[in-house]
Design brief:
The protein has three helices and nine strands, in the order αββββαβββαββ. By secondary structure, the protein is α+β, with helices and mostly antiparallel strands. A hairpin with a 2-residue loop joins β8 and β9.
Length: 192
């Protein structure tokens, strides 16, 4: 009887462990999906308290956060008239640990299913910039694998970065639209 109980206990332990990993992954992607949907609504739901006002941008606290993130902020730029969103995800002095976390975040994002318009699924795709302690910087760029007729999505970028800021390794996630240079009007404009 004891061997049967022992096998059942092992099976139950591995099932619950696997369940937790899946839950964490889906929680990160579901929270990020909320941010992406609100990005295309000019952060009408996520824009929190004003953190700083500069001539070319205003920074806000983000009301939508990723699980475990140290901070999440929104920036409203004057020129071009766009927004960006940043999540400070992780920080450690240990390069090996930072590198492992960077790779895990990338695996969750790459081929991740998101609904920028709230209904139609789109998949993020990119190639991981393999981290190296000697370079002190890695940046993976992901884009939606969207049809060409979805114009706003073609400029939307998700960047995952691992950088070394003495004495720590930091992982950050950025959402923004990369407009072609010919679409950015010259001159300066202040945020109102």
């Amino acid at each position: 009887m004891k061997p049967v109980f022992f096998l059942f206990a092992i099976f139950f332990f591995f099932q619950t462990s696997a369940q937790r990993v899946i839950t964490k992954k889906s929680t990160i992607n579901s929270s990020l999906n909320e941010v992406i949907v609100d990005y295309f609504k000019n952060f009408s739901n996520a824009k929190g308290d004003t953190l700083s006002v500069m001539p070319n941008f205003v920074a806000f606290n983000s009301k939508i956060s990723l699980p475990g993130a140290l901070s999440c902020t929104i920036k409203k730029y004057a020129l071009p008239d766009t927004y960006s969103w940043e999540a400070f995800l992780f920080e450690t002095e240990d390069y090996v640990l930072a590198s492992e976390q960077y790779k895990k975040f990338f695996q969750q994002l790459n081929n991740g299913r998101f609904t920028p318009d709230g209904t139609t699924p789109q998949f993020l795709k990119g190639k991981m910039d393999v981290p190296s302690e000697q370079r002190a910087f890695a940046s993976s760029h992901l884009k939606f694998d969207a049809p060409a007729n979805v114009s706003r999505l073609k400029n939307f970028m998700v960047d995952l970065e691992l950088t070394y800021h003495l004495p720590d390794w930091q992982i950050r996630l950025y959402l923004y639209e990369k407009l072609p240079d010919d679409e950015i009007r010259p001159g300066t404009r202040s945020i109102r």
